[in-house]
C-alpha cells in the first residue's frame, strides 16, 4: 500500500480530512493502518447501537445526545449475499467475509454479512465496539436506541449507559425482560406513544432517570410508584388530583432520592387547586437555585422549565416535617414542576 510509505506527518494530515466512517475502513485494512488511525488524537466520545428495523444495525458516534453520526451499517439479509464476491474485514477482534457497499445519500459504508445465527451477530457487534474503543477512544459504556423486537441482536454486555426506546409492538413483559438483562446506569428516553408497553412495566420504575417524550398511557397507579432521581414526561393525561397525590405522598414519605419531576398535562392544571392544598413558603431563586443533573440537560432541555418560566408561574416551597427536606413546586401553562433541594439536607 503506497499510502504507508508516506511520512508520519503526511498520514496525520490526510486523516484529518477523512470522515469517521472512512477512518474506520482504513483501520480495517491492516495492523499498520489500524495503528495509524489509533495514533490520531481522537476526542473521547460515546457510541450508540441503533436497531429500528429487521436485519439491520447501525453503529453511530455521538458527542451530543440525540445527535448521533452513523459510521457503519451492517445487515444480514442472506438474499443479498448470493453469488457476490466478498471482502475480508479484519482487525484484532474481527475476521469477517462480507460485501461492502455505500449508502448513496450519506456515503456510509454498509457491510452485507452472511451471519448464520444470533450469537454470530452479537459477537460481531461486540467485537466492533471493542475495536472502536481501542482505535477511536470511544467510551466503553454502550448506548442503545431500539425497538425491543430486536433486543436479541444487541451486543454482549450487562451494563448500558443510556437507552432510547422507539415504538414497538412487544408487551410489558418484554420490557421488564430487557431491564433485567441490561442494567441502565443513567437514563431511559422513551419515544413511544399512546399504546406504549411501558404501561405495565415494573422494572422501568427503578431506572434512575426516565424521560418520556409522550406519556398518554401513564396512569396514577404507576405514576406514584416511580422510584427515580428524575422523571420528565411530555404530554400526559395525569389530572390535578394525581399531582396533588404525588406531593402528599412525598411529604408523608421518606423519599430522599427524587431530584426533579416535570409533568406536562393535557388537562388544565388549575394552579389554585394544587397549590392551595399545601402550606407554601416564598421561593427566593437567589438562595434556592434550581440546578439539574446531566440527563435532564442532555435529553429534556426543551421540556424542563427555565428559571425564567419558574418565576412566572405560581410557585412556593414545601417542607417535609419528618426530615426538613425542601422542594420547589411550580405550575405554569399546563406544566407541573417539582424540584427537591438536596444541598442543605446533605450537609446535615
From TrEMBL:
<dbReference type="InterPro" id="IPR012885">
    <property type="entry name" value="F-box_Sdz-33"/>
</dbReference>
<dbReference type="InterPro" id="IPR001810">
    <property type="entry name" value="F-box_dom"/>
</dbReference>
<feature type="domain" description="F-box">
    <location>
        <begin position="1"/>
        <end position="49"/>
    </location>
</feature>
<protein>
    <recommendedName>
        <fullName>F-box domain-containing protein</fullName>
    </recommendedName>
</protein>
<dbReference type="Pfam" id="PF07735">
    <property type="entry name" value="FBA_2"/>
</dbReference>
Amino acid at each position: 500500500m503506497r499510502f504507508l510509505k508516506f511520512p508520519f506527518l503526511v498520514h496525520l494530515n490526510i486523516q484529518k480530512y477523512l470522515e469517521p466512517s472512512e477512518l474506520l475502513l482504513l483501520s480495517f485494512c491492516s495492523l499498520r493502518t489500524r495503528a495509524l488511525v489509533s495514533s490520531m488524537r481522537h476526542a473521547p466520545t460515546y457510541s450508540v447501537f441503533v436497531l429500528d428495523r429487521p436485519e439491520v444495525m447501525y453503529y453511530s458516534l455521538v458527542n451530543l445526545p440525540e445527535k448521533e453520526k452513523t459510521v457503519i451499517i451492517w445487515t444480514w439479509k442472506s438474499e443479498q449475499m448470493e453469488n457476490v464476491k466478498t471482502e475480508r474485514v479484519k482487525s484484532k477482534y474481527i475476521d469477517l467475509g462480507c460485501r461492502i457497499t455505500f449508502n448513496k445519500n450519506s456515503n456510509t459504508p454498509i457491510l452485507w454479512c452472511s451471519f448464520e445465527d444470533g450469537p454470530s451477530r452479537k459477537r460481531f457487534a461486540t467485537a466492533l465496539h471493542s475495536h472502536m474503543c481501542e482505535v477511536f477512544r470511544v467510551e466503553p459504556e454502550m448506548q442503545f436506541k431500539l425497538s425491543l423486537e430486536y433486543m436479541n441482536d444487541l451486543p454482549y454486555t450487562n451494563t448500558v449507559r443510556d437507552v432510547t426506546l422507539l415504538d414497538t409492538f412487544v408487551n410489558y413483559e418484554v420490557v421488564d425482560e430487557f431491564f433485567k438483562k441490561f442494567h441502565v446506569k443513567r437514563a431511559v428516553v422513551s419515544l413511544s406513544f399512546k399504546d406504549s408497553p411501558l404501561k405495565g412495566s415494573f422494572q422501568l420504575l427503578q431506572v434512575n432517570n426516565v424521560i418520556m417524550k409522550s406519556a398518554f398511557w401513564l396512569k396514577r397507579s404507576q405514576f406514584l410508584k416511580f422510584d427515580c432521581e428524575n422523571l420528565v414526561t411530555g404530554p400526559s393525561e395525569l389530572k390535578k388530583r394525581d399531582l396533588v397525590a404525588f406531593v402528599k405522598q412525598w411529604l408523608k414519605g421518606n423519599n430522599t432520592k427524587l431530584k426533579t419531576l416535570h409533568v406536562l398535562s393535557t388537562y388544565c392544571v388549575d394552579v389554585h387547586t394544587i397549590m392551595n392544598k399545601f402550606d407554601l413558603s416564598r421561593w427566593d431563586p437567589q438562595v434556592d437555585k434550581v440546578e439539574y443533573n446531566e440527563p435532564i440537560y442532555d435529553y429534556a432541555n426543551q421540556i424542563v422549565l427555565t428559571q425564567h418560566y419558574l418565576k412566572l408561574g405560581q410557585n412556593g416551597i414545601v417542607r417535609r416535617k419528618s426530615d426538613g427536606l425542601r422542594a420547589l413546586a411550580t405550575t405554569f401553562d399546563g406544566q407541573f414542576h417539582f424540584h427537591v433541594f438536596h444541598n442543605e439536607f446533605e450537609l446535615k
